[in-house]
Design a protein that fits this description.
Shape: globular
Distance between the termini: 40 Å
Largest sheet: 5 strands, mixed
Structural class: alpha/beta
Helix content: 40-55%
Strand content: 15-25%
Number of helices: 13
Length: 341
Amino acid sequence: MHAGFARGWRHAMWGVAAVALSASAWAQNPEPLRVRLDWTPWGVHGAFHLAQQKGWYQQAGLDVSLEDGNGSVTTVQIVGAGDSFDVGHAALASVMIAREKGMPVKAVAVFARQSDIGLLVPAEAGITGPAQLKGKKVAYTAGSLEAPFIDAFLAAGKLKKSDLELINVDAAGKASTYAMGRADAAFSTIPFFLPVVSQNRPSSAVRFADFGLNMPSFGLFANESKLAARGEAIARFASVTARAWEYIYAGHQDEAVSAILQQRPQARLDKTVLRGQIDALQPYFGQPAAGERLGAIVPQDWTQAVKTLSSVGLIGAGAEASSFYVPGLAHPERYDSLVQP
């Protein structure tokens, strides 16, 4: 193990006592931490904005700046370069793919343990799997994370792409294309799009994860050089964010909506959509593994992710699952006294 990384790792293992002793000093002299998000403001950013608004990062000794993104792949590339940001938030499959290509990035915390990509279908259509797509017009975005999995998903219903009409739509226009009825279904990120399109076209979702295509979804990652130099600060950030998500899903969803709206007023967001996105995300978080809290890395999830990604040629079948993450950094329990219900 790299010596610098080992030092960062040891610092990240501080216990609850160390956190309590340091809290006052941290709050008086917070460390700057630059964070790149996956996309423009939406429900998955609730924990970041709530923790920022309530001062939880500040109390944990962090002066956090949050920058919106324009896609997980771009965020991984920018954070992976190691120059501008300390940590990133993205779909972690993108982190795995980038690491396989030689980028020195690793996951440090997982919030959504189950894949969020799948198929949006009209609620009244009765479509529950790929077999019912024969002859349908389906929107997708070439170059998006869902695109490589379409063949495998259709194969689960004994279909090929030629059995339906696939229309390639720019990511920015996919929701409107589907919502206005110009497609019978759409492949996409379910928690983001479902509340948006359901306002005009009540819809349900068919998850790729239910057809053997599962992998960790949204979480935090960092460049290995940043982990070596700033592992302890990154661990604090991951822990506070995980604790904020626990707080949100303990009945404080509307507080998260309010925090996003207040911190991103220029985005002109719809509070009903934001609440719908936060609610739609919750099933993808799943339950923490036995003895763990939210944010923890669960090794078997990553073993499955290797199988899923290698099955469509995105990473090698011989990839070592443990090479894609750093365990033990997210400890929300250290901030139980900070985050009060």
